[in-house]
Amino acid sequence: MPIGAEQGEERTTMSDTSSTPMFVIENLHASIEDKEILKGVNLTVNRGEVHALMGPNGSGKSTLANVLAGHPSYEVTEGAIYFEGEDILEWEPDERARRGIFLAFQYPTVIPGVSMANFLRMAVTNTRNARAEAAADGGVSKMTPREFRRLMREKMALLKMDDSFATRYLNEGFSGGEKKRAEILQMALLEPTMAILDETDSGLDIDALRVVSEGVNALAGPEMGVLLITHYQRLLNHIKPHYVHIMLDGRIVKDGGPELALELEAQGYETVREQVAAG
């Protein structure tokens, strides 16, 4: 749940490592082209938790996702992001990915000439090998080509994806549902600790939404935290969150359990705006 925004001077790690939350966003302010979008976001996600972040267009949800992933166009002007006790603001996007932070894009990029299989092999192999080198206890081994092929087939079957999908160029000619399944396939193979899903339900019909949701539910577990960004309750009918947060004008203004999403669907964002304005 959200935490306070008190800051320490030049703090780069959280003090009590024995009880350190997995992922903490603390008083986060961020701008793009000198326009402030995030205006003090506070949120904590622990392993095994699914958090839904809801809000209207322009509230800052996708900006938050991009800032968490390290998008270079955004400037963090205040606050901190902690991952397993370490402040990650100086980490490059590739380091965040290697350390276990994953972002499923709202609008995945098309990369002609690069097959899904080759893209996934490079991403997964580099991430897995970096973790293996960093593991002092030897608990993580480097990935072999044979192991990758087996794992890819296994995860594609989980997401009901035809084998021919692997030979297609990344997102080229993909339907909305295929693009989102490709994002979830990446998540399945990369096995992140913190997964940020930016409007995964965008552009999906009912059948595609069900397949993607089943994939997320199959992958979510006690070792992974999930931040699920969405406009609508319909996704939460398939993926049950532990906590729901409402974002307006660059801040999280209301927190609750799954019932908060139902309340929002019934009353709309304007009611929340009125409640916030009334204090």
Descriptive notes:
The protein is α/β, with parallel strands linked by helices. It has a single domain, classed as Rossmann fold (3-Layer(aba) Sandwich), CATH 3.40.50. Strands 6-9-10-3-11-12 form a 6-stranded mixed beta sheet, with helices on both faces. A hairpin with a 2-residue loop joins strand 4 and strand 5. Helix 3 packs across helix 4 and helix 3 packs parallel to helix 5. The radius of gyration is 19 Å and the shape is globular.
**Amino- and carboxy-terminal Cα gap:** 20 Å
The CATH topology name reads Rossmann fold
Count of all domains: 1
* Run of helices and strands: EEEHEEHEEHHEHEHEEEHH
Low-confidence stretches: 1-18
What is the topological layout?
Elements: E1 23-32, E2 35-45, E3 50-54, H1 61-69, E4 75-83, E5 86-87, H2 93-99, E6 101-104, E7 111-115, H3 116-134, H4 145-158, E8 169-170, H5 176-190, E9 194-198, H6 206-219, E10 225-230, E11 243-248, E12 251-256, H7 259-267, H8 269-277
Parallel strand pairs: 3-10, 3-11, 6-9, 9-10
Antiparallel strand pairs: 1-2, 1-4, 4-5, 7-8, 11-12
Helix pairs in contact: 3-4, 3-5, 5-6
Brief summary:
By secondary structure, the chain is of the alpha/beta class. It is 34% helix and 25% strand. The chain has a single domain (17-277), classed as 3-Layer(aba) Sandwich (Rossmann fold), CATH 3.40.50.300.
For the structure shown, list the relevant keywords.
279 residues, disordered N terminus, Rossmann fold, 34% helix, six-stranded mixed sheet, four-stranded antiparallel sheet, 8 helices
